[in-house]
Amino acid sequence: MARVHTPRIFSGIQPSGGLTLGNYLGALRRFVEKQGQIETIYCLVDLHAITVWQEPERLRHQTREAAAAFLAAGIDPAQSVLFVQSHVPAHAELGWMLSCVARVGWMNRMTQFKDKAGKNAEAVSLGLYAYPALMAADILAYRATHVPVGEDQKQHVELTRDIAAKFNHDYGTDFFPSPEPVIEGAATRVMSLRDGTKKMSKSDPSDASRINLTDDADAIAQKIRKARTDADPLPGSMEGLKDRPEARNLVNIYAALSGETPDALLARFEGQGFGTFKPALADLAVSVLEPITRRMNELMGDPAEIDRILLAGAEKADAIASPIVAEAREIMGMIRGPR
Ligand code: TYM
């Protein structure tokens, strides 16, 4: 009989810059919603961040700031495991083991690698190329069954399923589950405020393209006021926004923030222009984000407390992952070692 894997959530965010509204709506807020319903493990993936250059002092700051964002958004260390990837050696170790299972051809199909490498694929780090194998290890070191992510990470979670299936097949086992991407809600792909065809991203050179979780009320209102839109009034349903990516994006952001469906929202705003919609969106965004930013700032006033929470989280994570990786080593034929 096939093994039944205990439901468990794992997800991660790179501390490679300040977190954005995209990270919040597409991931973080949903991490909080899952808490208490199922076992939840959340990770600040610093080993992923260093696949591109990170200024060491900035990386340390951003890792603590991302932890503060998790806590401020409502992640409770008593209910979820919250930790830093590099504190738990199982990730790097299983990452290597799975990079011997994954195939080069699979990596070559990863659209995020192609986007990030651009024309310069020969000059990027080897780590950037192998990144999806490390991500598979993050998930499989906990034998997680569900992975809440934004739309852009779907392909990586699907690759994790392929790697798990090949491992199970090659070694004649059902050791690893086939983790499912969980992509839900109106904001699975929040777009840039300057260009509705591009994802909102912490690495976009234009700060006006995104709302950062560290932005104050004035900055949020100003970015929304200046967001690119068109001159037409809003239609009564999403169908009417098919060819208006910027308008669609703002409507999706509003709906995600207010918890309405985009169609219900449009039924309220039908016929109105952005002169009315944008101030309403700015007020809503500020009312949701301001308390989070305030709490983040308070938490950042006591970095030692953040470190303490992260170290306690790492101990819990290690206690789960280390025996799983030891068993995977044994399945692969390594002699049992000291751990
Ligand atoms: P990262 O750090 O780019 O993003 C973290 C999470 O935020 C989501 N996200 C968005 N959602 C909606 N709209 C956007 N504009 C937007 N931008 C980002 C992402 O989909 C993601 O869920 N490789 C991952 C980190 C990772 C990971 C993992 C995730 C490493 N190991 C294991 C899950 C499980 C990444 O770079 O996410």
From TrEMBL:
Subcellular location: Cytoplasm
GO cellular component: cytosol
Enzymatic class: ligase
Cited CDD domains: TrpRS_core
Keyword Cytoplasm in annotation: yes
Sorted UniProt keywords: Aminoacyl-tRNA synthetase, ATP-binding, Cytoplasm, Ligase, Nucleotide-binding, Protein biosynthesis
Major site of localization recorded for this protein: cytoplasm
GO molecular function: ATP binding; tryptophan-tRNA ligase activity
Membrane spanning residue stretches: none
E.C. number(s) listed in UniProt: 6.1.1.2
GO biological process: tryptophanyl-tRNA aminoacylation
NCBIfam families documented for this protein: trpS (TIGR00233)
Subunit structure: Homodimer.
Protein name, per record: Tryptophan--tRNA ligase
Lineage, top ranks: Bacteria, Pseudomonadati, Pseudomonadota, Alphaproteobacteria, Rhodobacterales
Annotated gene: trpS
